[in-house]
């Protein structure tokens, strides 16, 4: 076989090979570098966003992927196009071009107490406003549970989309945030712009 014949066969083979067209998985995810840090976005088969979490390193990313496989489905695939809508909305939000999210969400990674806290979050602090851990605890009829509220917000599986960054200490000080205090400062400054 000559070199030209081999090259022709190789060329015919490579032009006829197309990448597989994978269907939407039980859990589809993508890891994105955003204006506030590296985030993993995941959605379930119905299209609901189930994670928008900070993953600063590979170990954190792997831990979240294992959690998704355990709690939702072992069929977890990196499928960026399945998250196009969520990615567009997040990018627009972080650029200050939108104030809320239309993408459906599901709190499948949250505990019952976290669901209670997170379901009251948007009503407690609208875009451009802040609330405190104590005020949120009172809103859920658990006035002495401000530390538990803080812990629930610290484990928010839908960061930014469910705005736990709007909750601050009673003194007004910025306290812990999954994405770090610089991300929290960025988000609060973004939302306070006219």
Can you describe what's shown?
With 194 residues, the chain is α/β, with parallel strands linked by helices. It folds into two domains: 27-94, Double Stranded RNA Binding Domain; 112-192, Winged helix-like DNA-binding domain superfamily/Winged helix DNA-binding domain (Arc Repressor Mutant, subunit A, Orthogonal Bundle), CATH 1.10.10.10. Helices cover 41% and strands 15% of the residues. The protein contains seven helices and six strands. The protein has a four-stranded mixed β-sheet with strand order 3-2-1-4, sandwiched between helices. Strand 2 and strand 3 form a beta hairpin. Helix 4 crosses helix 5 and helix 5 (133-139) packs across helix 6. The termini are far apart. The mean pLDDT is 90.
């Amino acid at each position: 076989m000559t070199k030209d014949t081999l090259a022709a066969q190789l060329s015919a083979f490579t032009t006829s090979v197309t990448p597989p067209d994978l269907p939407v998985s039980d859990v589809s995810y993508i890891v994105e570098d955003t204006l506030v840090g590296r985030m993993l976005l995941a959605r379930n088969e119905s299209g609901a966003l189930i994670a928008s979490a900070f993953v600063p390193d590979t170990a954190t990313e792997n831990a979240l992927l294992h959690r998704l496989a355990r709690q939702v489905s072992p069929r977890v695939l990196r499928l960026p196009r399945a998250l196009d809508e969520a990615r567009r909305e997040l990018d627009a939000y972080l650029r200050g071009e939108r104030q809320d999210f239309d993408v459906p969400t599901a709190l499948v990674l949250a505990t019952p107490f976290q669901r209670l806290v997170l379901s009251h979050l948007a009503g407690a602090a609208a875009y451009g406003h802040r609330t405190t851990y104590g005020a949120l605890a009172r809103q859920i009829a658990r006035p002495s549970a401000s530390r538990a509220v803080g812990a629930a917000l610290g484990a928010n599986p839908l960061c930014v989309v469910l705005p736990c960054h709007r909750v601050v200490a009673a003194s007004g000080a910025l306290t812990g945030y999954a994405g770090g205090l610089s991300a929290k400062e960025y988000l609060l400054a973004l939302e306070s712009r006219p």
